């Protein structure tokens, strides 16, 4: 495992580059090419009668982006937005969606062979949300299955 700060680093087909972040105490990762940008959880406009997993919408340079509370989607208690909270803006089938997370961690590279299927006891969160887990230093990063997480919230 390598922690990286440069986005120009070449990664071969045997490796995954993950943008990592925390939701509660869980360290999660998304493949870096799924993340369009990261911004602060500011100026979210609430939407009346929206499901509880929708934090609201933001104006992102003229585009209206729905912000999803990832804690709620994963079955955790809705968190409070803090100075460390961030929106991971992802492009899902041409639609921009913001994922509100508790805080950002690092960009890491892991060997695909080091990513194993999630154990059945990964946590109270349903394992269908994860495509795998990898051990990094003294922690475990769970690779988020973005399609499943967002499909479940719909």
Automatic annotation (TrEMBL):
<dbReference type="Pfam" id="PF01584">
    <property type="entry name" value="CheW"/>
</dbReference>
<feature type="domain" description="CheW-like">
    <location>
        <begin position="15"/>
        <end position="154"/>
    </location>
</feature>
<dbReference type="InterPro" id="IPR036061">
    <property type="entry name" value="CheW-like_dom_sf"/>
</dbReference>
<dbReference type="GO" id="GO:0005829">
    <property type="term" value="C:cytosol"/>
</dbReference>
<dbReference type="InterPro" id="IPR039315">
    <property type="entry name" value="CheW"/>
</dbReference>
<dbReference type="GO" id="GO:0007165">
    <property type="term" value="P:signal transduction"/>
</dbReference>
<dbReference type="GO" id="GO:0006935">
    <property type="term" value="P:chemotaxis"/>
</dbReference>
<protein>
    <submittedName>
        <fullName>Chemotaxis protein CheW</fullName>
    </submittedName>
</protein>
<dbReference type="InterPro" id="IPR002545">
    <property type="entry name" value="CheW-lke_dom"/>
</dbReference>
